[in-house]
Design brief:
heterodimer, A: 119 residues, mainly alpha, Arc Repressor Mutant, subunit A, three-stranded antiparallel beta sheet, 50% helix, globular, B: 245 residues, alpha+beta, four-stranded antiparallel beta sheet, 8 helices, 60% helix
């Protein structure tokens, strides 16, 4: 008798909330395509110095995002050196919009439930 | 200096990952380092800690990910850890003649596993130096590396451990199912249960003496079980990531 086994405990990346670092990286790339160092500085600036990524952490996240097809890597035209930049793909833009909508919903909910008098 | 160290640490990544992102990561590291240089000492130290811990952590994650998703059956990775265990077994068997013991110190087992895994990773197809080598040449390299490194490391570690205990007149004992190790000061002989007992007697220049006992119930299947578990563990850890041979 043949039977198949399906794994149901795998996390679906498209519905899981994004970590702060990943969200900031996506936000950074939403504005314009950037290379690694520019993403690093932008994330630090956006978070007011609260989130400082190391190169290893940044490239770990970039590799995962490339694997999920949320960003793409390309060679910068104007620079002759072997330098790559990253930009959001349509799937990445969509994922970012979903996450932002989720956060807006949470913020609205929080504003309704936790009134200033209630705190 | 730091950039060189960073490049060296990049070798913790699998070859494919390193060749795809390595130069870019070094370039970003150099730019970030130039920034950190302009700041105070505390910031620079934090930068170094963050960079190297981030790199090691990420490399470990990538290695585990590639090991899990490796299309090659894990049994192909057995050669190096198996050779390590075989040689360790030989050292134990000929311990008295060779003066290399190894089983009185529990850390030796971890060391053997570590060296086995490291050699599997280096000598396996993951390593660019020996990628195109024929199978039998790789096997020879494995044996050569182990025949040189393993006995020296085992001897060095256990000798330092024994001298450390002797100098402090300290006792030590550990037990795992089937194995009982007792290290005590003095030269008192011990009457133990039937089975296989190895003992080693040490004396320093001040006349301090210490005896180390390693007792087993002569339970060979148990040793085989431990060996097989350790080999499988190391083999999994050091799985190859390139196409099957």
């Amino acid at each position: 008798m043949r039977y198949g086994v399906e794994r149901h405990n795998e996390k679906d990346a498209s519905v899981e909330p994004l970590s702060e670092a990943v969200l900031l990286i996506l936000l950074s790339l939403a504005e314009q395509p950037r290379h690694g160092y520019s993403v690093l500085k932008d994330v630090e600036e956006m978070s007011d110095g609260r989130v400082i990524l190391s190169t290893g952490t940044l490239y770990g996240a970039l590799r995962r995002l490339l694997g999920d097809n949320w960003i793409e890597r390309f060679e910068e035209d104007e620079v002759s050196r072997d330098r790559h930049a990253y930009r959001l793909t349509p799937a990445g833009k969509k994922r970012l919009q979903t996450e932002v909508a989720r956060m807006k919903h949470l913020t609205r909910l929080a504003a309704l439930r936790v009134s200033p008098r209630g705190i | 200096m730091l950039t060189r160290l960073y490049k060296l640490f990049l070798h913790l990544y699998p070859v494919q990952c390193r060749s795809a992102f390595g130069s870019e990561m070094v370039s970003v590291f150099q730019q970030a380092r130039a920034d950190a240089r302009q700041k105070h000492m505390g910031h620079r130290i934090a930068f170094c800690v963050r960079e190297f811990s981030g790199l090691i952590g990420d490399a470990f994650q990538v290695q585990m990910q590639t090991a899990r998703s490796c299309p090659e059956p894990w049994v192909w990775s057995l050669e190096a850890p198996f050779a390590a265990l075989l040689l360790f077994g030989f050292c134990v068997w000929r311990a008295e003649e060779m003066g290399i013991w190894g089983f009185f110190f529990p850390g030796t087992y971890v060391l053997v596993a570590g060296i086995g895994g490291l050699a599997a990773w280096m000598i396996g197809r993951n390593c660019t130096f020996m990628r195109s080598w024929h199978h039998w040449k790789r096997g020879m390299a494995i044996l050569a590396v182990f025949a040189l490194i393993l006995p020296i490391v085992t001897w060095g570690v256990e000798e330092s451990w024994a001298r450390f205990l002797l100098a402090r007149q300290a006792a030590f004992t550990y037990q795992i199912p089937g194995v009982d190790v007792v290290i005590e000061q003095g030269a008192a002989p011990q009457n133990r249960q039937p089975g296989l007992t190895f003992s080693r007697y040490l004396m320093d220049a001040h006349g301090h003496t210490m005896t180390m006992f390693h007792h087993t119930g002569g339970d060979t299947p148990l040793y085989l079980f431990y060996g097989a578990m350790l080999t499988a563990m190391v083999a999994f850890w050091s799985r190859r990531t390139t196409a099957p041979r």
